[in-house]
Amino acid sequence: MAQPQSIPLTVAGSLVPGAMNVPSEQPSAPSKMTARDAGRMSAGALFRGAYVHVPFCRHKCHYCDFYSFVDTEDRALAYVERLEEELRDAVEFLTVPIETVFVGGGTPTMLGADLLRRMLASIRKTLPIASSAEWSVEANPETVDEAVADALAQSGVRRVSLGAQSFNPKLLKALERDHDPSSVERAVTLLRRAGIPQVNLDLIFAIPGSTIADWEADLLRALSIAPDHLSAYGLVYEPNTPLTVKLRKGSVTRLPEDDEAEQYEFVVEKLSKSGYERYEISNWSLSGMACQHNILYWENADWWAFGPSAAAHGHGVRWRNIPRLATWLETRPSAPVEDIECLAPDASAGEAFMLGLRLMKGMPLERVERLLIGGERSVRRRRSIETFTAEGLLERVDGHLRLSTRGFMIADTVLSALI
Ligand code: SF4
Fold first, then answer.
1. How many domains does the chain have?
2. N or C: less crowded end of the chain, CB within 10 Å?
């Protein structure tokens, strides 16, 4: 789902800021820090992206560490009203046109058609959004009906990202996903009929008990829908999730590493033969359909974040709104923030390499040179880059430094050395 909270190295890791596995109802002391404090600390940031986190889900999947939960108190309207206030409060920090808006979660489509319309209209009316901005919304296939599809299309949403994960009932059960596989095709039909021009499907591989034949069947079914974009992540055993507890207790068996690697290699080959361009370790699109919002994360650009648990970045400063709906609803007008981290230049450079080299095109060489100026770690980084280049794991192509085909296969090792 949609947000980089931590930055995973593994090809399995989803790079999407915005969620933590924190139970929603734990009491917490109100934070003294707010998004305003973070905005002041990130002076000079040019926020080109906006991320909005909607924390509601129909059901909590046991592998998920995003901040999301089943709302038994019907707080969707309160959420939208509070969000509107947060939007107004942040606007003075947003000094350049916003090029990408990403509404993730959780399951934004749980809000239903009317509240979705209201929320999207408020974002458009309040923030300085470029007329050409990319608007993306995440959806769970079961929550897309005709009214929701129309609300999204009529609100100017151009991309909908559907959490399909698998089409195999046995594997969906292993993930504790509760949707019917056929709901994916039905949702895509409704979205296209409503006029949504770009549809992404999220898939998960290396699910316990899966075989290469299962994965091939999943990919073939996904391709039969002709999505404009595909994300394929290996299953991640995030700390403190129920899935990881089951793994520790032995009631779940992790797929062997070789099988996971085989499934990853299979998707790389299959999608390239099917006309999809891989533009990032785990993301493929038809020509011109790459997700600009995610590229902004990988390029370590600046984005503002709204909603409980949403994470933001501005000019080397990272912060996260409190991952607790009740506290976020009550603390106003600026969003309560649980921590603000000012990255030292060296840490910031390490992060830039870790993110930027996930992109197939890599990083512009002038940027690489700028990031290698000064400090002992820079000397070590430069040495590592030259060694990896000599070994054929990194390459300089079209004015960029990038991972080679072989380098992508062991991206974790290469990127770890450059952090
Ligand atoms: S639907 Fe997505 S966000 Fe919600 S619990 Fe499942 S994986 Fe997490």
1. 2
2. C
- Domain hosting 196: range is 35-342
Helix (H, G, I), strand (E, B) or coil at 71: coil
From the CA of 106, give the closest atom in ligand 1: 3
Distance CA 108, CA 105 (A): 6
Q: Which of 14, 16, 57 to mutate to test the pocket of ligand 1 (most atoms within 8 A of CB)?
A: 57
Name the nearest CA neighbour of 95 among 250, 354, 314: 314
Cα 61 to ligand 1 centre (Å): 6
| Rounded Cα distance, 220 and 8, in Å | 28
CATH number, position 239: 3.80.30.20
Tell me, yes or no, whether 107 lies in a domain. Answer: yes
pLDDT at 412: 87
Render pLDDT for 334-366 as a digit per residue (tens, 0 to 9).
Answer: 999 998 999 888 888 899 999 999 999 999 999
11 domain residue, yes or no: no
Return d(Cα 244, Cα 297) in angstroms, integer.
Answer: 27
Q: Is 408 in the pocket of ligand 1 (CB under 6 A)?
A: no
Centroid of chain to Cα 353: 18
pLDDT over 70, % of the chain:
93
Regarding the beta carbon of 401 and ligand 1, being less than 6 Å apart is answered no
Among residues 290, 321, 342, which one ends one of the domains?
Answer: 342
Q: Does residue 233 lie within any of the structural domains?
A: yes
Q: Is the CB of 1 under 6 A from ligand 1?
A: yes
Q: Do 118 and 186 belong together in one domain? A: yes
Residue whose CA lies nearest to ligand 1 atom number 5: 60
Calculate how far, in angstroms, residue 64's C-alpha sits from the geometric centre of ligand 1: 6
- Residue 8, pLDDT score: 36
Query: Does the residue 250 lie in any domain?
Result: yes
Rounded to the nearest angstrom, the distance between the alpha carbon of 326 and the centre of ligand 1 is 20
Give the residue-averaged pLDDT of 107-124.
97
Q: Which two tokens stand for residue 31?
A: 């934070």
Q: Which of 281, 311, 342 is the last residue of a domain?
A: 342
Q: Residue 369: what pLDDT?
A: 93
- Total residues found in the chain within this entry: 419
The answer to whether residues 262 and 365 belong to one domain is: no
pLDDT digits (tens, 9 = 90+) for 231-288: 999 999 999 899 999 999 999 999 999 999 999 999 999 999 999 999 999 999 999 9
60 lines ligand 1 (CB under 6 A): yes
**61 in ligand 1 pocket by Cβ < 6 Å?**
yes
Asked if 172 contacts 196 with a C-beta cutoff of 8 angstroms, the reply is no
Q: Give the per-residue pLDDT at 3.
A: 62
Residue to mutate (ligand 1; options 56, 60, 235; most atoms within 8 A of CB): 60
